[in-house]
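Recall the central idea of this unit: under ordinary conditions, the amino acid sequence of a chain determines the structure it adopts. In this exercise we apply that idea directly, starting from the sequence alone.
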Amino acid sequence: MKHRALSYPKLLAGGFLLMILCGAVLLSLPISSKSGEYTPFLTSLFTATSASCVTGLVLVDTYLHWSVFGQLVILLMIQIGGIGFMTLMTAFSLALHRSISLRERTLLKENFNMPEIGGMVRLTKRILCGTLLIELCGAVILSACLIPSLGVGEGVYTAVFVSISAFCNAGFDLFGRYGAFTSLVPFAGNAVFMLAVSLLILIGGIGFIVWDDVLRHRFRFRKYRLHSKIALCTTALITVVATVLFLVLERDSTGADMPFAKQLLHAFFDSVTPRTAGFNAVEISEMAPASKLLSIFLMMVGGSPGSTAGGLKTVTVAVLLICALSNLRRRSGYNVFGRRLPRDVLDNAVSVLMTYVTVLTVGVTVVCALQTEQSFLDILLECVSALSTVGITAGITRDLLPASQLVLILMMFCGRIGSLSFAMVFMQKQRREIALSPEETVGVG
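Accordingly, the structure predicted from this sequence is:
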């Protein structure tokens, strides 16, 4: 029987599944909990999935429940889940001076969503060095904010944990000492802390392809790949518009008693963190319904392809909008920044959208059927948060039935490997058809 190598979607799914199961077993051990007792496997599995899929939804407070060993296991899964296990495997190969095979380079290309296979080893080195440098800089800034209140040892440790979690868009934190599940609420008035976390989230979620362009071409925007141009412009536009909308929507809600400068800071942070980071500086349950809907939209969009973020991705949404506008204007071709988008790009974008919507619809329907006492808006927010690997919660995750929590686990897993890749795991590779069926038009719209 002829041996066939596993496809990238199956290898990706298998790698994450193995990491999740190993993490769940480790977190179940008494050494991982502060109480020294075994943690229920469902809780450990949920936490391991959330960490590996860089989501941030939790059933128990990370600081109050897990020991230092358990926290380090979570941190390791966040780091591997953020940069990808293929990157880690390549790093070990480079450290051992082993040559990188063509198949490994192809897998790296798929992992980073790069258009070409050339220069993958060089890009991997840049990503590893850049990740360590950015996380280190973030840890230094956050340490300066935390050391005065927590001391040197605890302050540095917490800063490193939050820096890695923010860069990988994971949403885990160690601020349970101020109250269970408080996230960044205790630091809501610290502008340096909030801006540092926001920048880490944005840099981690912008995508490694954009990194490569910025490093090679600096500020010469015209020389960037079309992908980078669309990702940067879409990210900037969404951030600015969402900041203004949050500023207006929350002025009489969570921002009622705040000065304008603090309202602006919170509005900016609220526009960044739903892009799959999962931190919150105000209680999500206290936000206006319109703000919750805006957060859901931002979570669905997510970050950029080939990044630590989840969601539909900025470029996917931009491609769909570009194509829709071109069709409405009756223009031939889909043009942007002086370039024309290939037809298969639109096909992939539509496939991603439909798969995402299908998985989300099934997940929301199942959870609604199981949780009849919960509001639809809160369930929708929770499911979108899981599928887009965000971690923002209305506070209902830990109150859900075990069956509903299993649905969220599956949605987090699906969201991290990509809804389209998840579907492709179950699809057989088809041969290209030589004979095409006759063409016939249908009415749409």
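The beta strands are 335-336, 339-340.
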